[in-house]
Write a structure and sequence with these properties.
The chain is an alpha+beta fold. It folds into two domains: 247 residues, Sandwich (Jelly Rolls); 55 residues, no CATH class. The protein is built from eight helices and 15 strands. An eight-stranded antiparallel β-sheet has the order 2-13-8-15-6-5-3-4. The chain binds 2-oxoglutaric acid. The site of 2-oxoglutaric acid has 11 residues, from strand 6, strand 8, strand 14 and strand 15. InterPro entries: Cupin_8, JmjC_dom. It comes from Folsomia candida. One of its GO terms (molecular function) is tRNA binding.
């Protein structure tokens, strides 16, 4: 694979202040280092979390004997334990790895720290990076050291706020979707460090990989559809905030809990595609092959048109 590229850094200054317009319309990741996030940067120690009024709150967590959580082989179980127990488990040196991705009151409702973790939410100053009316969810991510979350994309823009410990984030652009060996919406590549990675997955030679290490106080903008895999280097606490970046409520699936359901027009397009390919299966294999290839030509034509429109737009912007 090509060497990793750095994520662009945006330093917040008097002339570049924090505001929703900073990220609005931006379609590439950005690192906003050392933001003033409030008391949480010093108070969110394991002891403070364990002693907090939320200590007995039950949370649903991922537990695994492997540090590398894999959504395809599902090498983890879900457990319901107290918040204090989760923090204690993450800090104990054992062969079990723990991960909290907070949810709402049920497994189908969205997480909102102000509602579900109010005393801790009060210690975090949320950077004003999106319009409040577009808010979707705020999520606690608490991980054991070394825990790696599978590579995935979300369908909403989000910022990952690092509060405690450090995290390594690897990102791939949406344009590389056809080189990432997707099974549905997840890549089948699990071990990015494997010696035979490129023999097994040769198209990875062509992907553009970005990498950044987050330290406490750093905020990473992860645009919708960017693939990302995240490894907690130490015991880690992060919060991430999702918002609806597209104008058009009708695009978003009302049943989305995680911020990762494909947009409604895309879901409908996939259903239509399934029907189209089912139609072609009625034909003998050589006919089916021929018409599938013709469908690829139509798709490629549309991609070419999009590309030339983008190139024209970029050259207009430069003039
Ligand atoms: O930090 C993590 O553990 C995962 C974060 C993530 O997937 C996201 O911000 O979308």
């Amino acid at each position: 694979m090509n060497a990793s590229l750095p994520v662009e850094t945006i330093n917040i200054t008097a002339t570049t202040p924090l505001s929703p317009s900073l990220l609005s319309g931006r379609r590439s990741p950005a690192l906003l280092p050392s933001l003033p996030l409030g008391p949480c940067l010093t108070t969110w120690t394991p002891d403070h979390l364990i002693a907090s009024s939320l200590s007995s709150k039950l949370v649903s967590v991922h537990s695994s004997s492997s540090p590398r959580l894999n959504f395809i082989s599902k090498n983890f179980t879900y457990e319901r334990i107290s918040f204090a127990q989760l923090v204690a488990n993450c800090c104990s040196s054992s062969n079990t790895f723990w991960y909290l991705r907070s949810l709402g009151d049920t497994s189908h409702s969205r997480s909102d720290l102000a509602t579900h973790f109010p005393s801790l939410a009060a210690e975090l100053d949320i950077p004003p990076l999106f319009s409040p009316e577009t808010f979707f969810s705020s999520v606690f991510r608490i991980s054991s050291p070394s825990l790696e979350l599978w590579t995935h994309y979300d369908t909403l823009d989000n910022v990952l706020i690092q509060v405690r410990g450090s995290k390594r984030v690897v990102l791939f652009p949406p344009r590389d979707a056809d080189k990432l060996y997707l099974v549905g919406d997840k890549t089948s590549v699990v071990d990015w460090e494997a010696d035979d990675l490129l023999e097994k997955y040769p198209k990875l030679r062509e992907v553009t990989k970005y990498e950044v290490i987050l330290q406490p106080g750093d905020v990473l903008f992860i645009p919708a559809l960017w693939f990302h895999s995240i490894t907690a280097i130490d015991f880690s606490i992060s919060v991430n905030l999702f918002w609806k970046n597209l104008d058009g409520e009708q695009f978003y699936d009302k049943k989305d809990t995680y911020g990762n359901r494909d947009l409604i027009p895309a879901q409908l397009a996939f259903k239509t595609f399934e029907k189209a390919t089912a139609q072609l299966k009625q034909l003998p294999p050589d006919y089916e092959d021929f018409y599938l290839r013709r469908m690829i030509i139509n798709i490629q034509k549309r991609l070419d048109t999009l590309k030339s429109e983008e190139d024209n737009q970029n050259s207009d912007d430069r003039e």
